[in-house]
Amino acid sequence: SDDLKMAALHLKWHGKDTDTEIQQIVGFHIRTLYRIQTHFCRTGDVAKAKVLGHGCPWSLVEADAAYLVSLSKRNPALFLDEYQKLSS
C-alpha cells in the first residue's frame, strides 16, 4: 500500500534502521525500497501513476454524444475525464 511505502521511506530518512531492518519490517525487497525512493524523488509521491484509457473503449450512443455536446457548450473548459466524474 502507499501508506506502507511512505512508512518505509520515513524509516529510511530517519536513519535509525538499516535497509535490511527496514526490509524485515515492511516486507519489501531492498530493490523495491530503492525503487520507491527513486520514484518519490522523481515525482514527489509513492503512488503509481493512474492509468488513463485502460480497458475496452466504450462506444457512445447518439444520446450520450448529444449529452456531452450540451455539457461542452455549457462549460467548454472541462475535459472529458471531468465530464466522466460528473456522470458517475
Please describe what this structure looks like:
This protein has 88 residues and is mostly helical. It folds into 2 domains: 2-43; 52-88, no CATH class. The protein contains 5 helices and no strands. It has helices at 2-14, 19-26, 30-43, 62-74, 80-87. Helix 1 packs antiparallel against helix 2. The chain is elongated and about 60 Å long. The protein starts with a helix and ends with a helix. The model has no long low-confidence stretch (mean pLDDT 83).
Lay out the secondary structure.
Layout: H1 2-14, H2 19-26, H3 30-43, H4 62-74, H5 80-87
Give the total of domains. Answer: 2
Helix and strand content put the structural class at mainly alpha
Tell me the radius of gyration.
Answer: 21 Å
Number of helices: 5
What percent of the residues sit in helical stretches (DSSP H or I)? 55-70%
Q: Describe the biggest sheet? A: none
